[in-house]
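Saturday, quiet lab. Running sequence design on the structure tokens for the scaffold JK sent over.
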């Protein structure tokens, strides 16, 4: 039997993980070439917010596959792509104070229902463990809500402190 015929095509996406207690780890996660939620490739936040408790990370040094428990991941950071302009895209500037003392400032850019366009509504969305923050540097940060101490609105946000 041809094992290649059973393989699900995926691509590697470079990320940096901050985990507890290990710290910063560089590597790549595997993304499906077609998302089951929308047209186009799967996005990193889809992988992090899936119900499976572990994700696969291909590490560079040492070169190996690792399986990380998503509950131990504090945040995932990667180079973002510019969002397409849309009148339905809501932007919410905020500052996140993390358990490790880090303060992240940035902008949340999401399509939200009119009745749920407040920062409070977004961070309390129960279906997702990780929220997505766009940093002024152009990077995207997926943050585990379990490691956030507090959130405040910040209309001047956009960078990382």
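Result came back. Writing it out in full:
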């Amino acid at each position: 039997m041809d094992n290649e015929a059973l393989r699900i095509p995926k691509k590697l996406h470079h990320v940096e993980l901050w985990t507890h207690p290990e710290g910063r780890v560089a590597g790549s996660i595997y993304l499906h070439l077609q998302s089951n939620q929308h047209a186009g490739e799967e996005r990193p936040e889809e992988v992090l917010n899936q119900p499976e408790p572990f994700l696969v990370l291909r590490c560079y040094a040492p070169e190996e596959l690792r399986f990380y428990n998503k509950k131990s991941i504090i945040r995932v950071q990667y180079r973002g792509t510019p969002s397409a302009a849309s009148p339905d895209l809501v932007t919410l500037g905020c500052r996140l104070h993390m358990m490790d003392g880090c303060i992240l400032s940035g902008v949340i850019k999401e399509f939200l229902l009119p009745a749920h366009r407040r920062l409070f509504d977004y961070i309390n969305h129960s279906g997702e463990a990780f929220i997505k923050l766009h940093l002024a540097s152009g990077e995207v940060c997926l943050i585990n809500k379990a490691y956030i101490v507090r959130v405040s609105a910040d209309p001047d946000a956009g960078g990382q402190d």
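Notes for JK: Helices lie at 3-6, 44-48, 119-123. The radius of gyration is 16 Å. Ask whether to fix the surface positions before the next round.
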